[in-house]
Amino acid sequence: MRNTKQRKIVLDIINNSYSHPTAYQVHQECIKVMPNISLGTVYRNLNTLVSLGEIQRLDIPNQMTRYDKVLSHDHFICINCGNVYDLKRSDITYKDMIDGNKVLSCKINYEGVCGGCLNKSEGDDINGIKGK
Fold first, then answer.
1. Are strands 73-78 and 109-112 parallel, antiparallel or unpaired?
2. Three-state DSSP class for 103?
3. Which of 33, 85, 106, 127 has the maximum number of C-beta atoms within 10 A of its C-beta?
4. Are 67 and 23 in contact, with CB atoms under 8 Å apart?
């Protein structure tokens, strides 16, 4: 598969981002470098990069799909504001085989209320969780 200029731009945006961007956000960054790139081209390149294992897709319930670099790390997802934070790989031991099944990947997402939302609430009840 040939490596296109558009694919390189999309890959660079994902690899230099810490915000776990949506396809639309990637497109907004792409047009700063290549003004005539279409949203469809961005989607096609994101899908290609995911299938090649060069980036990862984050499917988060009730949110638009986000994209992230391929590194061994976990995520914390705030159920209140929707922000996604990178976490160091947990202490869970990764196994190659489980009950006779070959493990190809492992993704761990923690869900809860982030510190920012807890601080904003200052005692308010957010999704059943008391703030300060």
1. parallel
2. coil
3. 85
4. yes
pTM, entire model: 0.70
Question: In 3D, which of 37, 36, 42 has the Cα closest to residue 55?
Answer: 42
Report which DSSP code applies to 122: T
Shared domain check, 82 and 61? no
Residue 36 sits in a domain whose CATH number is: 1.10.10.10
Residues 6+ away with beta carbon under 8 Å from 111: 76, 77, 78, 79
Question: What gap in Å lies between CA 64 and CA 50, rounded to an integer?
Answer: 16
As given in the structure block, the two tokens for residue 24 are: 């639309």
Q: Distance (Å, rounded) from C-alpha 16 to C-alpha 96? A: 30
Tens of pLDDT along 43-100?
999 999 999 999 999 887 778 899 998 877 788 889 888 888 888 876 667 778 888 8
What the block records as the tokens of 86 is: 């990178």
Domain count, the chain: 2
Strands (E), 2-132: 55-58, 66-69, 73-78, 84-88, 97-98, 101-102, 109-112, 125-126, 129-130
Look at residues 116, 57, 48, 46 and name the one whose alpha carbon lies nearest to residue 81.
116
